[in-house]
Amino acid sequence: MELWLNPACSKCRVAVEELDAAGIAYTVRRYLDDPPDEATLREVVARLGLEPWDIARPKESKEEGVEVPKDEAHRDDWYAALAAHPRIIQRPIITAADGTTVVGRDEAALAKVIDAETT
């Protein structure tokens, strides 16, 4: 399991606590220090079943000056923006060994990835 996190984020700390409580081994990627490239972002977004703009944090996007239309014609621009400005990426993103991937911001998402890892 891989966990993309920002240690200063309360949702990330909750995810760590839940994974630890479930006894799940995971690798931490501090994505602000080790930003994903566009290819990795494409893989993760595909596993999430989302569009790249769906994993962008609105406030941080605005602060970083990322004002890209949310449409198919600008999909590549979103991947470039996410790679160039990792601060705008939603967190935590968790990928189980079977490929199940979630943005672990709520109990249901955390339960989904924990179930995928333990069954």
From TrEMBL:
Q: Which Pfam families match?
A: ArsC
State the protein's name: Arsenate reductase
Q: Which SUPFAM superfamilies match?
A: Thioredoxin-like
Q: Which InterPro entries match?
A: Arsenate_reductase-like (IPR006660), Thioredoxin-like_sf (IPR036249)
Give the superkingdom in one word: Bacteria
Q: Which lineage do the record's taxonomy fields give for this organism?
A: Bacteria, Bacillati, Actinomycetota, Actinomycetes, Propionibacteriales
Family (UniProt)? Belongs to the ArsC family.
What is the organism field in this record?
Answer: Nocardioides islandensis
